[in-house]
Amino acid sequence: MSYDLLVNGVKHSVDVDGDIPLLWIIRDSIGLTGTKFGCGIAMCGACTVHVDGVPMRSCVLPVAEAVSKQITTIEAIGKTEAGARVQKAWLDIDVVQCGYCQSGQIMSAAALLATNPSPADEDIDAVMAGNICRCGTYPRIRAAIKLAAEAR
Ligand code: FES
Ligand code: FES
């Protein structure tokens, strides 16, 4: 069946089964490979994208449920006000190690700041707890989120 998706402001028509996870449409059909596959069971956060501004685990979101919604991936998060601040802070603090989890981390952080401009430590910990980093960049992630919040 054909589905119309709006990804980063661009319309894409894909002819796939409706229960295929959005992650694979983004990566394989559309070719945006910044969104990563980690666990496939909504446990690691590597596949996080925004759907109508809400962070979602695209590895478990059927493509049929994303039709007619605004999907934003890491490739376009820098065009949002909060996303631009988060990406700058990530570079200033030099958060990244291997980098694999970082697309998802940035997507979650940008969604946090878009809804909570001055998050407390516990707010950051609660939102970011679903994004796993096996390199252990958590202290720098928290510092970068605070720096991004102060940059308003
Ligand atoms: S790949 Fe989606 S949460 Fe891990
Ligand atoms: S930077 Fe390597 S897994 Fe997070």
TrEMBL record:
It holds the Pfam family Fer2. Residues 1-77 form the 2Fe-2S ferredoxin-type domain. GO terms for molecular function: 2 iron, 2 sulfur cluster binding; metal ion binding; oxidoreductase activity. The keyword Iron-sulfur applies. Signal peptide: none annotated. InterPro entries: 2Fe-2S-bd, 2Fe-2S-bd_dom_sf, 2Fe-2S_ferredoxin-like_sf, 2Fe-2S_ferredoxin-type, 2Fe2S_fd_BS, Beta-grasp_dom_sf, Diverse_Oxidoreductases. Keywords: 2Fe-2S, Iron, Iron-sulfur, Metal-binding, Oxidoreductase, Plasmid. This is Carbon monoxide dehydrogenase small subunit CoxS/CutS-like protein. It comes from Rhizobium gallicum bv. gallicum R602sp.
